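Weekly puzzle thread! Below is a chain. First person to post its structure in token form gets bragging rights.
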Amino acid sequence: MNIEQLLKDNVVKAIETLYDKTINEKQIQLKQIPKDVEGDYSIITFPFAKQLGKRPDEIAAALGTQLLAQMSVLAEAKSIKGFCNLSIGDSYWRGFVKEVLQDKKYGTQPANGETVVVEYASPNTNKPLHLGHIRNNLLGYGTAQILEAAGYTVKKVQIVNDRGVHICKSMLAWQKWGNGETPESTGTKGDHLVGKYYVLFEKHFKVEYNAWQDSAKANEHLQQWLADEKVVARTIKGLEKKGKPADEAALGAFFFKEVFKNKYFNLYSELGLAAKEMLQKWEQGDTAVRELWQTMNGWVYAGFDVSYKRLGVDFDKLYYESDTYLVGRDIVQDNLKAKKSIFFQKDDGSTWIDLRNDKLDEKVVLRSDGTSMYITQDIGTATLRNQDFGMDSMVYVVANEQDYHFKVLFKILEKLGHKYAKKCHHLSYGMVNLTTGKMKSREGTVVDADDLMNKLVAAVQYESESRETLSGLPEAEQKKIWEQVALSALKFYILKVEPKKSMTFDPKQSIELQGQTGPYIQNAHVRTQSVQRMVSNKGIEPIGYQDYELEEVERDILILVHELPNVIQRAASGYNPADVANYLYDLAKAYHKFWNDVKILDENNLAATSFRLDMSKAVAQVLRTAGTLIGMEMPNRM
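Winning reply:
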């Protein structure tokens, strides 16, 4: 049994024995004692004083004596000003090691009967996955794994954004400049080929837009904007605050880049008008457009599948925006017909919901022409998922620029009467960049996911071959280990950061053997396996260790091993894979210290050797269990 639960059960029993009164387990405040203070756990007795009619220091002293009599696993109990400080004896830890080795599911919890849907990935089909998608996928998959370990039934899903003008940009560019090339004819991964044409569209659009800026019509729009003194004053102030020039040329450049670009696309651009016309044809079911759309999306899906498999993530069900975008519209329109509709229409025919009493704002859910907004599509998709899975809650893994969107979505779902709505969670995460700066999809400067994985594997291979640590293994096994080390390095480096924080990914630092890195953790596992091989090579026969007295470093390791169930519960309740990642680092660090400080194979003390071998097995088991939760693999050699 978990020592904390064992202590609580015995405190209840001791109070009943001492005072003939029953306390609620929830009254018991049990705290771990800091390392610089003697003892392992402290029981705070102040909450019992009124009920028992005794001073806290009296209760602490009597409780310590009684617990020592009741619990053979306690080594010592001391009363200090209303705190009963307890030291756990070695007998508990020796038994605990055996319990862990007997329980291959140690740390995970039994099913709790609740179903949670976790949405992540959700890519657009006009470009390949990039570094931002990697963080999204790893956060989503890690969260799903942790929730499952905490006892939830988990359904992993994604919504594929497969319709819209951005998709048509790639399609139009391929029609104009593709010359019929395919992934097969070019040897190019399908998502990369389609992404190439998205970038090409933007390149040609930029040339077109730059040329138009010299026209009389462009100057007319610029002068109208410059005539608005308040807007220009705010713009000048903003530019100066950023240390940028605010002269006439700078204002003109700002206007065309930040203010008018989308309007130009919709009003004047030949490419823009052609893309919008293609979207209209798609919505009307035009055969040729639909066939091209299916073909190019098929290329992208095949490419995505390769990336997902390599990254180690998967899904239970995929939803496609092209299938779901009308569902939300129908829900809104049906609700409008109800006597007490939560929606209302404005004079222009658009449909809204008023959330001002909920400290939000009015939100449009249908345009005046009856077409859906993104929020409306999300309403429909959530409804479909509830129909599919009967979920109790849902987690959306989406970047933090959508914080307000999800506050509105959850409130609308609640007002529509969905029971799961109050248990929906937006796992909001910050931007991720490389040390070289930010990424821009339209300009083709994103950090491509496939390229990043390839470069990390190549870097690990170079380091491994220069050290010749795997030279005796078959080539196929070496390649497998390089892949395990590189991708685990990527996963750990991404997930060790709290999701809400923005981060910078440093590829070189991520694969280092020292510091807070994936390889540092994997090397701890390699050492646990190395010591088992050494025992076999030396012919050492383990014996019992029932009287073995633990070293302090061994107790430190076992306290960490003991924490795994609590870490999983904490990570699940906070939707925070960083809790597991940083736990892995702490455990690896403790084992590395043990490796350096203690003679593991002590032929003069076989009891010590036997205990340390079993403890190393327990550490290996926990490293694998916790590593699996965040997608890390633990090689036996590296």
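Puzzle host: Confirmed. Bonus trivia for everyone else. The first helix runs from residue 3 to 19.
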